Amino acid sequence: VQLQESGPGLVKSSQTLSLTCTVSGASVTATNYAWAWIRQSPGKGLEWVGEISQRGITYYSPSLASRTTIARDTSKNQFTLQLSSVTPEATAVYYCTGGEAYTYWGQGTQVTVSS
């Protein structure tokens, strides 16, 4: 199973950060699999942003929930992240992950939010 993140590496403050994760080797609707976004800001640990279940149910970090949307496109076997009204604090490496226990990970993509 392989995951690949894609999207702009630079976003301006107050705009919406949009990323796509393309999954190969497994379906985004696979039984018992969930698909998530996790980020790591400079000098900080991993932060769970949210996930979408096999049934398309979404769960978000409480601190980000009001600005986060995770969706999926089953025809393309992709899932996406939108984080609105970003500030420079959203600068991070964003990882997509999935599987029964986040077994599979993408390589990560750097997103920088400019002020």
Helix-strand blueprint:
Blueprint (H helix, E strand, L loop, with lengths): L1 E5 L3 E3 L4 E8 L9 E7 L5 E8 L4 E3 L7 E6 L4 E6 L8 E8 L4 E2 L3 E6 L1
Parallel strand pairs: 2-11
Antiparallel strand pairs: 1-3, 3-8, 4-5, 4-9, 5-6, 7-8, 9-10, 9-11
Structure, explained:
With 115 residues, this protein is mostly beta strands. 0% of the residues lie in helices and 54% in strands. The chain contains no helices and eleven strands. The strands form two sheets. Strands 2, 4, 5, 6, 9, 10 and 11 form a seven-stranded mixed β-sheet that branches. Strands 1-3-8-7 form a four-stranded antiparallel β-sheet, with no helix packed on it. A hairpin with a 4-residue loop joins strand 5 (46-53) and strand 6. The radius of gyration is 13 Å and the shape is globular. The termini are far apart.
* Largest beta-sheet characterization: 7 strands, mixed
Computed Rg: 13 Å
Helix-strand topology string: EEEEEEEEEEE
Strand segment tally: 11
The best one-word shape is globular
- Calculate the terminal CA-CA distance, rounded to whole Å: 37 Å
Could you tell me the strand content as a percent range? Answer: over 45%
Strand-pairing-aware structural class: mainly beta
Summarize model confidence as the mean pLDDT: 97
Which range best describes the helical content: under 10%, 10-25%, 25-40%, 40-55%, 55-70% or over 70%?
A: under 10%
